[in-house]
Structure formats: structure tokens, C-alpha cells
Amino acid sequence: MTTSNASAAQGGAVAKAATWFDERTSVSGAVKEFGRKIFPDHWSFMLGEVALYSFIAILLSGTFLTFFFDPSMAHTEYHGSYVPLQGMEMSAAMASTLDISFDVRGGLLMRQVHHWAALLFVASIMLHMARVFFTGAFRKPRELNWIIGLVLWIIAMLEGFSGYSLPDDLLSGNGLRIVDGMIKGVPIVGTWISFLLFGGEFPGDAIVGRLYSLHIMILPALLIAFLALHMLLMVVHKHTQWPGPGKTESNVVGNPVLPVFAGKAAGFMFIVLGLIFLIASLFQINPIWNYGPYDPSPVSAGTQPDWYIGFGDGALRLIPPGLETSFGPVTVTWAILIPFLLMGIFVIGLFVYPFLESWITGDKREHHLLDRPRNAPFRTALGAAWINFYATMWAAASSDLIATHFHMAMEHVIHFLQFWLIGGSLIVFWVVKRWCISLQKHDRNTLLHGHESGRVIRLPHGEFQEVHVPLTEHEVYELQYENYVPVKPYLDENGKKKGKARAALSRWFFADRVESVTPSELEAAKHDHAELH
Length: 533
Known about the structure:
It holds the Pfam family Cytochrom_B_N_2. The chain is mainly α. It has 20 helices and ten strands. A two-stranded antiparallel ribbon has the order 1-4. Strands 2-3 form a two-stranded antiparallel sheet. Strands 5-6 form a two-stranded antiparallel ribbon. The radius of gyration is 29 Å and the shape is globular.
């Protein structure tokens, strides 16, 4: 204790302040423990970091914008710097957004930074989720973190949509009108929900203020809370890693948080922020002055919602017309309910998949090593089909632009996308699965024989053989994977066979999967071909 006090006394002001703070919080132990955490080094792990850093850009730019935005639908007359709209009646929200764009120093830059960062935020979340799915990083013990990531994705889309609707311009107003129509399509309660949301008949006079409260308080608070929980669980469970020499299920090979990983992360953060500001400086987005204030009578042509919301609009366009059923005084509009069902199946399927795969495969072990996507053909093919399903709905949201740009009939575009939504997803599933299996066969051949060198020699007895280049230790680890066996039915205490459906699904999951090379096969191959290496 004497030595510690003497050292503190001899230190500078920073050392004294740090000692004072640590003596009252004991934070040094937590910092020391966290600083020892090891993080592996791979480019795919940076997708989650991009989401975090774009969220920082959203918070910084959004804080700036809140000082100048007026979330009111009160009518006013515009007298700002943008001459074409001077004297036009509009809401205070629209007028304040124009003032931010043309009269506040740096306002337009901050608006565009906010919008571009929001797009990047959702995109990086989705790419990060795809990486987690295709590599099996959602398996035990990370099922809860997978669910948290999906909740973050949904909140991010709601956050983007609520912010997109705040300027009360023609484009955002039409988007809200579509949402209002979908809500009213819900039988019995739809109209009441719409009146509650908009404060009366659409568009009402309260929706912008309510969306503003969601956008700057409730949804950001939920995002921050779930992000913190997501990162806490990542630290608790330790980071996943790709297979390689010295990497096992019980260790992590990489760099400690302090100082290596933290230094790299800080540098990467400034790169991401710099790119966002560069894009916002050079590329215009959401020019609301071209659309004008919202008016229920006109509908802007050739405009689509932000890409991450487009799948909902596309689902509405792909439903055939005239799907209605009357039950007395109540008319059920299936053209609204079926898109809700499709989007629900798409999202709920993502939530339950980790538990479904664990049940089908019977795999209850903890996994800290990642799968190469090719080594789980069924999962990879299903993920590709899932992406095709989403992308087809997203493309349908631009069906009018596709038709005009490529001089095609609108009906032809819709009919093709209707087929591709289901038939295309099945085709993608089959092609990707066969592709993964072919890659597995190639890996197995490479493990047993090495890389082809293109050099052919003649053996003493006259046989011609190609000389193969031996694999490195890292390549051997990378190309090997665990062999699984399908779940089999079992007999209960009464002698009745149970689990037949689960066994059938398990056989389907593992169907055509190429078995990995066993250690004995690998050792035999080394001896058999040693003279040719």
C-alpha cells in the first residue's frame, strides 16, 4: 500500500485522477479482464463493425438534425431560400427540413450523412447476419445472440422507415399511405388501428410527431440496449473463429483487445466514417424539394421506398388482383393478408431456424469453430433460397422501372417475378446445394492427392502420373470438417417406433453430403503418394 501511494503521489495529474477513480470504482479489474479478450482477425468479422460505426454516424448526424427539425404538421407558408417553393403551403416539418437543407450551415451534408449511414447500417446488419448464418455461428451457445441480431435488424428497419417519413414530403407521404392501406386491410381491427396511429382519418395531424418520438427516443434506446446486450454476449461466449492450425473449440487465436484490436478498430471506424461523409458529399439522396409537400391527390411516379423496406411493397405487387372474400358485412382482402403472411413466414423462419436445425441434426454441442458454407450444403442452399425470396420481393417493388427501362410489358415483369418467387427459390436451392457438394468432392480429392501441378512423369514400369503439390498445414486444417450422422428413429418403453418424421428430416438435411477425409485416410494418402510429391 505504501509503494502504491508513493507511486501515485509521484505521478502526474492524469495518474492521480486515474488512481482516484479506480479506488472508488475498481474499474481497473474490468478493464484488465476485457483488455485480455482475444479477437480473431478475419475480414468477414468486420461486417458487424461496419454496422456499429455507421450507427455512430447516425447518432452524431441525428443529434445535429434534432436542433433544427420541427416535428409538427401545422400548416405554414414557406419563405426560405429555395425559390421554386416560396409561398407554397406546407407543414412545419417540411419547411424545417427545407431550412436544414438550404439555410442551416452544414445542414444538407448532415441530412445526407444521416440517410446514407442509415442505408449502410441496415445493409451491414444484413450482411453480418448472412455471414453468421452461412458459417453456422448461430449454433449453441449463440442462439440468443442470433435472436438479438434479428431484433436489431427489425428495429433498424423501423427506425429507417420512421425517419424516412418525417419530412412530410410527397414521397414519404405516399409511403405512409401504403402503410395505412395495409393496416386497414386487416379485418375488423384494421380501421381502428389506423385511426389510433394517425390520430384520425389519414393523414391526420399527429403522425409526424409520433414518428419523431419513435425515431429519436424509443427506437434508438432499444437499438443501444440490444447492441450492448449483443456485444456483451459476444464477449461472454468468446468470438467464433475459422478452422486452422492451433485453433480448437476451447481457445481463440488472435489479438488482444488492448492495444492491438482496439487500435485497428479505431482506425477502421474513422475509415468507415470518412467514406460515409465522402459519399454524402458527392452523391445526392432524398431531394425532397423535387417532390414538394405531401398532398393526398397526386401520386409520384417512378419512386420506390428505401431498399430495405422495398420487399413489403414488392409483396403487394406480386399478389394477383381480385382476391377478396365476403363474410356478411366483413370483406377479407387476401391481397393484403397474403403479403403479411409471406413476410411473416420469411422473418419467423429466421427466428426459429437455429432451434430447428439443432432438433433435426440432434447436435446439442457447443460450437466455436465456424463451418465453411460448402460443408453444410443444405443450410447454405436454404440460405441462398431465402435471399432469393427476399430479393425477388425487393425487385418487384421496382417492377414499373424494370418495365420502362427495358421496354417490357408490366404484366410480363410481374408474371416472371411471381414465378421466380417460388420456382426460382427452389431452383436456387437445388443449384447451390449441388454446387456445394461438388466443392466438397473437390476438397476431398485435394486432401487425398494435393494440388495439381500440371507436371506429368513416367514411372519405371511405364505408368504416367501427375505430380501433386503437398498441402500446407493450414490448408489441411481448412479442408477438413466434422462428419455427422443423421438422427435415427428409436423405440420407446412400449416398443413403439418414435421420431420417424425427425429422422426423415435429418436424412434430408444430410442427403448427398460428402464425408470428410478421416485421419487414417489422410495418413495413408501421404504414404501412397510420397514418392510423387
